[in-house]
Structure formats: C-alpha cells, structure tokens
Amino acid sequence: MFNRSANVSVVFALIIMLLIAQGVFSLVYLTSIASQADKLYRNSYAVSNASHRINADLKSMNQIMRNIEALDDEKKIRILASLVDDKERKILDSFDLIFERYLGSREDIQSAYKAFVDWKSVRDEVIYYGDADAESRLKINASEEKYETFLQHEIQSLIDFADAQAKNYLANALDSEDDAFNIISSLLVAAVIFSIFFAIYSVRRLKERQIAVQERMYLIDQNIMMAKFNTDGTVIDISNHLCRHIGLLKHEVIGEQVNFFINDDADRNKRKAIINVISTGKIWEGEICRYDDDGVIQWIHSVIHPELDSEFKVKSYTNIIDDITDKKSVEQLSLTDTLTGLYNRRHFDDIIEKEVRISNRNKTLLTLAIIDIDYFKSYNDKYGHPAGDRTLAKVAQAIQAPLTRPADYAFRIGGEEFAVLFTNSNYDQSVEFLESMRAKIESLNIEHKGSDVSGSLSISIGAQIIEGSLMIGSNQLYVKADQALYAAKIKRNTLVVNPETG
C-alpha cells in the first residue's frame, strides 16, 4: 500500500513539476519575445522612422532652398525661409529622438548632426545672398550640394543600421517564438503523457478499491448481523447473515416493521424504552431475549445507532446485532442449579431486586411465591437420596413448564424449597396460576408413603402479590411470602396468599 501511494505521489509530483516548468519557460520566452518586440518597436523602428522623416524633411528643405534661389521677391523669400526654419526644428526633434533610441555608435549620429548644424550657415547664405556676385553664388551652391550629399549619405546609413537592427530583433523574436513553441510543446506532450498514465493508474486503482469495497461489503453481509431502519421502524436494508439468524429472506423483511427484532409481546416496555432513547439521537445498547420459529430462546446483543441529517435530525437507524445465546448459556451455568436446571439462590437475589424496581417504576403487579415439598425429609429417608434427586428434578420441571414469558422466573432456593416470580397478571389470575401449579405437582402421582396429607408427593405454596404503587423492598417481599409459606405448611398441600393490600 505504501509503495502504491508513493508511486502515485511521484507521478503526481512529476506532472506538477512539468506544469510548473511549462509555466516558467512560457514566462521566460514570452518575456524574451516581449523584450525583442520592445527593442524592435521602441528603438529600431523609432530610429528608422525618425531617419526617414529627416530624409524627407531634408528633401523638402532642398526643394524650398531651390525655390528661394530662383526668387527675387523678399517677402516670398521670408515666407519660404520660415518654412525652412520649421523643417529645421522638425529635423532637430528627430535627431533628439535618434540620440535617445539609437543603439549603435553615437559617433554615427554625431557626424550627421554636426553636418546638419554646419549646413545652417550655408543655408543662411543662400537665403540672404541677394547682392552676391555670380562667383560667390557658385561657391555657396557648391557648398550646399556638398552638405546635402553628405547628409543624405549619413542619414541613409542611420536608416540602414536601424533596418538591420529591426531585422535582427525580429529574427531573434521569431527564434524565441520557435524555441518557446518547441519547449512548451514538449513539456505539454510530457504532461499529457504523464496525465494519461496517472489517469489510467488512478482508474485501475479505483477499480481495485471498488472491488475491495465490494469484497468487504460481501464479508459484512455474510458475517455481520445488521439492519437499517427508517424513523418509523420499517426495515430499509438487512444483511443476509441476520436473515439466516431470524429465518427469513431479505425480501420478506425489507419494508416490514420488525420491532427491533423483539418478538415477545410481553416485552413491549423494552421496545418503548429503545424508541425513547434512539429518537433523541442517542445510541441504545442492550440485550434482547427472543424466540425462533421453534420457540427456542435466542439472546442477542443489540446496538442501535441513530444517523443524523445535515440539520442533525434523526433520519434512520443502524442496528448491529451479535448472537450471545452461547454466552448466555455459559452464564446460565453459573446462575442455575445443576440438579434441577432452575435458577439458583444467587440469581434469585439479583432478579428479585431488579423486578421490584421494574414493578415500582411501571406500576405493575408482582407475584412472589415460595414453594416447599411436603415431608421431603421423610421422602429421602424412605426412598433414598438418588430417588429424592430425581423427584426434585421432576418437580422443578413441572414448576418451570408454565413459566414461558421472559419475565417469568423459577428458582431453587434451598434443598426442597423453590420460588417463582412473575408480573403482568391481576390478583385473581395470579392465585389461579399458583393453584394450578400446586395441583399439577399432585397430579404427577409420585408415591410418598411418608406424607401425612396424601399418598402422593405434594407441595405447599406461600405467596405475596403486590401492586407496583404499593411496592416494598425485596427483603420485605421475601419475608411476607415466607410468612405465607409458614401458614401453608401448617395445613400442607395448600396455597396461602397474603391479602391483596400486601
């Protein structure tokens, strides 16, 4: 994994470096081209244009000078002389520009400039030589032609030099453009190649990750029991492993309400408690007892996670379940009596505390009955302890059989002494249930010749039935049930229940 991540980082870094290099080279060559263009237009073309203007102005001055030579009218001569002065100023301005922008030797300009300045005296002589003799005029004209020829030659040299510089800068700019195009194109092609490689590699890695995610999802689906509900408890999705556990197929569960997989109608309070917790956005965690299709008890550890939307409101629930039936079976070994399979006295002490609290909180009726086998010592003396053990197991089985709800409990709390604890029945139903249990034991027809009340084995039952609103402590509840048992044992083979007020 590390090597793959390193490879991706290297390729990505190369692409970034190529793009940076491309940007840097582009900037360098664009700066070079801009510099060449600036020199081309700011210097060479400026000097060339100024030289051409000087050349044109010189020709115009020469023409004016020729016209002055042919005139005798002083007024017209003065007008043309002002034109000459105007051209002279323009030529001097052009020389100033050439001095500023010329990239060659300043001596080249200086000689032309000096010749132009020196020519002024000759021009003045031409303009004002009105009384000169023919010989003087010829000398002046010869001098003027000499200056004109020299100036034209010098100015043409400036033009030629400026044009050569312009061509050179243009060639350099074109070369820079070609170099820039070649290098930037190469970098671009390299960046594209690396980008394509990176894209192919990324797509391949993405597919590998998708396959890995699908494999993980398959493993989760096959090995983890989980389901997703919407806010009204309807199943949105469920894993196949959980479907196998509850004995249903996906299409039989999705869209249905399964009450968080609690299928015992007597455990409505737990469903309500779960909803009260998770609807507020808090995680609920606990153990749930349920039954499979064959009526066998299953224990599950359930964790329900609320999922929130962008406004932190509950939008759905994820339920993760673990089968703890085997764990509970192991726990049962430490909580049950080895001989009878009923819960032992240790568990009785824990359960009665819990059920007293629940009854008090929910204001439900709670019944505690203590059961004693009549004259069991005599039974052991006459039939032997192995027979006594077998009889204890039979009695325990008969006591346990009608206690089918999760909140129904049967205990062996002493040698031949048992206890039952149950809720959610009214007073008369509780009495009727306990009386049927007494009769059931007698109907087993277990021979007991040592009994003074019957030829068959019998039991005495003492019970305390109390409303949750009148609930007392667990020790007091036990004492009252034991007092009822004491009264029942006076008569034997009977049921004694304390008054309804407790």
Please state the overall shape, judged from the principal axes of the Cα atoms. Answer: rod-shaped
What share of the residues does DSSP label as strand, in percent?
5-15%
**How much is the average pLDDT?**
83
Count of separate structural domains: 3
What structural class do helix, strand and pairing data support? alpha+beta
Unreliable residue stretches:
none
Question: Biggest sheet, open or closed, and with what strands and sense?
Answer: 5 strands, antiparallel
State the helical fraction: 55-70%
What is the radius of gyration? 59 Å
Order of helices and strands: HHHHEEHHHEEEHHEHHEEHEHE
Number of strands: 10
Question: How far apart, in Å, are the first and last alpha carbons?
Answer: 71 Å
Q: How many distinct helices? A: 13
Strand order of the largest sheet: 2-1-5-4-3
Question: Any chance you could write out the topology, listing elements then pairs?
Answer:
Elements: H1 2-70, H2 74-101, H3 106-128, H4 134-223, E1 225-230, E2 235-238, H5 240-246, H6 250-253, H7 268-278, E3 284-291, E4 297-308, E5 314-323, H8 325-335, H9 345-362, E6 366-373, H10 376-383, H11 385-400, E7 409-412, E8 417-423, H12 427-442, E9 459-466, H13 474-491, E10 495-497
Helix pairs in contact: 1-2, 1-4, 2-3, 3-4, 10-11
Protein architecture, described:
The structure is a single chain. The protein is an alpha+beta fold. Helix content is 64%, strand content 14%. It contains 13 helices and ten strands. The chain has a five-stranded antiparallel beta sheet, with helices on both faces. The chain has a five-stranded mixed beta sheet with strand order 7-8-6-9-10, with helices on both faces. Helix 1 packs antiparallel against helix 2 (74-101), helix 2 (74-101) packs antiparallel against helix 3 and helix 10 crosses helix 11.
